[in-house]
Amino acid sequence: MCGIVGCILDKTAAPTILKSIRKLEYRGYDSVGIATVTDTINLKKGIGKIDEVDNEIHLDDIDGKVGIAHVRWATHGNPTEDNAHPHNDCNNKISVVHNGIIENYKQLKDELISEGHMFKSETDTEVIPHLLEKYLDEGKSFLEAMQSTVKRLKGSYSIAAISTEEPDKIVGARNESPLIIGVSDHGNYLASDVPAILNETNQIIYLEDKEIIQLTKDKVEVMDYELNIVPKEITTITWDPEMAEKGGYDHFMIKEIYEEPQVIKDTLSEADKVHEIVKKFKKFDRIYFVACGTSYHASLVGEYLIESQIGIPTEVILASEFEYFQKTLDDHTLVIFLTQSGETADTIKALKIAKQKSETLAIVNVVGSSITREADHVIYTRAGPEISVAATKTYISQLVCIYLLVGYLGENQEILTKLEEVPEYAEELLDSEQQIEQIAKKYKDSKDFFYIGRGFNYPTALEGALKLKEITYIHGEGYPAGELKHGPLALIDKNIPVVGILPPGSSYMKTYNNLEEIRARGADMIILGANNDAMIFDIEDKILFDPDIDEILAPLLYIIALQLLAYFISVEKGIDPDKPKNLAKSVTVE
Predict the structure, then answer these.
(1) 487 SS3 class
(2) Euclidean distance between CA atoms 54 and 149, whole angstroms
(3) Are the C-beta atoms of 136 and 94 separated by less than 8 Å?
(4) How far apart are CA 102 and CA 81, in angstroms?
């Protein structure tokens, strides 16, 4: 996920572009760049967050009334100045910014190189300015060149381009990646998202897939791929600018929870790459997962899946404790490292130890991070930047990668097929928001919670309790359901609600019997189970799921309900869930 801005104004564009692109830094912060057009392409770009780059090269000090900008969340190529957008053609007459993934870029790049085009970056994006150059050289207009270019592209993209050939225009296109237009009396705009331009205009045109745009200062044209004009309505946005950064949501956390169905889809697009990695593996006698915090809980799901579905002995080790296990490493051990940032210090140290004897795999959200440079193999999650401190969508994307890995490692087509249904299930679950909010209101003043689950869903209990602690400051503990009678049951009474994770499957009856023990002691229960489960019909507080979501698939979906529960309790208590006390989003600590 990256951010795009462009505008055509009656004044110098760069100061407005810089102000606008700052509003999209939540979409990426690996690098930033601005290009304007006069009689030449004027380009400034650098690595790092916007303030860091601006302090060094003064991004707003560029001539020109027409310009484009980009903040990058790296997907193809490490965060370097050459890989930063915008990207130009061979003769620096065209400049392009792009969000998305061009799936056939390697074939296009090879073709263009054979025709004499010179590439400077590792990105998929750079094929776009060279294709535009190719078609302009054939005598086509800038708009026609864009038309010919997008017809060659496979994948997702939102594109904005400028050219010295027609310096009074921006042309662009959208397919499966967001792009909107802003209309005003003093010029026209485009952007990945409304927050970028809301300070300039609240008159917005939403683009659909496979639409091309041409902007001048006084005119907006939206066309299909055959350049037929597509009539568009202008929408008046009523959010204030701060609210717009959150897409109309009250907090980033709830916005990011609602992004989870799309994050699941995006991460599933890594399936072929996961398969290729698995085919390179040798035979392993043992697997270790190494992680911290939320990533540790995702790893626990991986342990249950691998041991139950494949039969390889597996163990999860906290990164800070890994050095005490190093004598058990050998060349028949696979060590898997989970880290959202790829910069967690304990995890990096553990990876360096593991590499000395064992094969290593990293599951990471940040391209080009330290972990990705050290590991033998890398699987990228596709969660995009996560602004709220409490991990939500990054946890889901880690789980998707683990399920893909298990599916291919165990040649389990059933798991791989079931994964395809998960985004739809996730969307259906989010429709239960109001019901979960009512449960949150009922229990917001509780001082303690217990979360219980068995097997695959014990890690979900741990992660649900962690979310509660992080953003509500209520004490919560996750337990294997069968362990309650070995001590914790002494604490159960009517003042401590118990969250029971009860999906269909082989562990159902044992977990149900544990819940009956709890009910006999007068505790309130919040049950997560199947919507056709007659056994829990008389339980007042329940969150229901499609019955096809069995215990194996449940970790991917039941946790979403627990994220929502924690979120709404936090809001009811008047706490900002995005900024919990004593915690921070950091690239070195998870």
Answers:
(1) coil
(2) 32
(3) yes
(4) 20
- Residue of 2, 7, 292, 401 marked active site: 2
In the set 210, 265, 573, 585, the catalytic residue is 585
Tell me the per-residue pLDDT of 152-163, one tens digit each, with 9 for 90 and over: 999 889 999 999
Looking up tokens 């980033």 gives 252
44 among known catalytic residues: no
Residue 475: helix, strand or coil by DSSP?
strand
Rounded average pLDDT over 362-378: 85
pLDDT band at 366 (very low <50, low <70, confident <90, very high): confident
Phi, psi values for residue 582, rounded to 5°: 70, 0
Which residue intervals of 115-212 are DSSP H helices? Answer: 127-137, 142-150
CA distances (Å), 72 to each of 46, 101, 246, 460, in order? Answer: 10, 12, 19, 32
Q: Is the pLDDT of residue 368 over 70?
A: no
- For the residues of 558-584, what is the DSSP string, one character each? HHHHHHHHHHHHHHHTT--TTS-TT--
Nearest to 349 by CA among 306, 320, 312, 380: 320
* Among 586, 154, 579, 44, CA closest to 346: 586
**pLDDT recorded at residue 243:** 63
pLDDT digits (tens, 9 = 90+) for 177-208: 889 999 999 999 999 888 889 899 999 998 98
In whole angstroms, give the CA distance from residue 182 to residue 344. 40
To the query of whether residue 2 is one of the catalytic residues in this protein, the response is: yes
CA dist 387 and 382 (Å) reads: 15
- pLDDT value of position 177: 82
For 437-462, letters b (16+ CB in 10 Å) and e give bebbeebbebeebbbbbbbbbbbbbb
From CA 381, how far away is CA 98, in angstroms rounded? 20
Q: What's the pLDDT at 1?
A: 62
Q: Which residues pair with 286 in a beta bridge?
A: 333
Tens of pLDDT, residues 522-573: 889 999 999 998 888 888 898 888 988 999 999 999 999 999 999 999 999 9
Query: What confidence score (pLDDT) does residue 584 get?
Result: 53
135 C-beta neighbours (distance < 10 Å), count: 18
CB–CB of 359/549 below 8 Å?
no
Q: How many CA atoms within 13 Å lie on the side-chain side of 389?
A: 19
**Cβ 354 vs Cβ 335: under 8 Å:** yes
Determine the Cα–Cα distance for residues 269 and 420; give it in Å rounded to an integer.
10
Contacts of 481 (CB under 8 A, 6+ apart): 452, 453, 454, 458, 500, 507, 510, 511, 514, 515
